[in-house]
# Entry
Amino acid sequence: MRSAGRLVTSRDPTQQKWVEKKYELAHAVLSRSRTVTELRWEIDVHASADRVFSLLAGLRDYDKWLPPSSSFRGTVKISEGPIAVGTTYVEPSPLGTRYGRVTVYEPPQRLDFEQPMTLRPRLLGVLGIRVSHTLTPDGESVHLVRVLKVAPNGPVRFFMAPVIRAFTAENIRLMNAIKTVAERDAVPGDAGNTPR
# Structure
């Protein structure tokens, strides 16, 4: 177990139920939102799809390759067991807290999260956030597409321009970190992209 914004695996059933309840409440708000902004980033990574997928799916290891920033302080309260559809987690930040859940887990082609964010102060509302990753192997590399859908609910809808700027900067940072780490650790000639 790590603290101070680092990995904390939730073994306490009461704590896990609390995370799931927060997720469900925020998800319900997301479902009612009328405005959705979609952002998209693409990058070619000279590493295997398996390697890139394992970085993205390895919630317990983000702190090993993605340094904290003003928007990302770490992933905590990860539900027990292997990462799979239904895994829950929490990502606190100065802007608010994301209560996440893995919604699609298809190694090494597809990985999606839904992580509604309760803003600080709470009266600003909730941001519905859906993140999808599609990985397409291409010889010795993989093409990674990350799509982020953001749906505001509450007064935050009047302040979306700075929110979108912050999300854009953080997602570009994440994509560049994935590329750097995956390529640094890649084994030459072992693309690992053979379809199964």
